[in-house]
Amino acid sequence: MAPTELTLELINVPVSDVDRAKRFYEEGCGFTVDLDMEPAPGVRMVQLTPPGSRCSISLSSNLPLPAGQSTSEPGSVHGLQLCSTDLAATRAALVAGGVEVSEVMHVGAKGWAAGPGGEWNSFVFFRDPDGNGWAVQEAPKPLAER
Q1: pTM of the shown model
Q2: Among 31, 102, 115, 142, which has the highest number of CB atoms less than 10 A from its own CB?
């Protein structure tokens, strides 16, 4: 039997320098800092949320994990995806924040091509300072209306 509700609310993004990553996501990408704490000496946790999202990312250093779990290497997370109802404006905001972002790309019958596409098949791509890979997909309407 499936649970009545399961929400994805936090994704760990492995980084080598928490302060650098925090600046990138807060100042470059416009994420809101929800939490920046040191729960134990030498252990740092930073949680940030993209504008309008219910799912946050977590940046941490020296976080002890339960037995049998391990951390990922900085830069090893790929395929993280955001959605935007105005991809051009989102791209412009990322560029203004100093983020290196691809041109708008769309996927169609002939594969990937530069330029505008249509609903659900237009994207831009970027990486954080450690190389973790992100895509921003154009969505036809806000999440609450889908």
Answers
A1: 0.87
A2: 31
